[in-house]
Structure prediction request, 81 residues.
Amino acid sequence: MEQNHKALDIVKKGQSGAGVAIKIEGATQQLFGRHIDENDLLYSYITRHSIDTLKTEAMRAEVSKEEWALIVKLKAVFSLS
Prediction:
């Protein structure tokens, strides 16, 4: 992800006022306006291992209640138990 030509690892809700650029990796190039547009839902893939890591005592305080609600929704999208 990039914002104002600066690489970012994390962008939280409310921090994207100037917009955020993302790179979509896959077998083929995805063109905005042709293959995807602003109405498409894009998900960031999360694994069971990543969720377990976020649940550790060291990381739990870094995740907001709103982010936990999103993780619960992503678990359903990716069929994670």
Observations:
- Residues 43-81 form one domain.
- The mean pLDDT is 88.
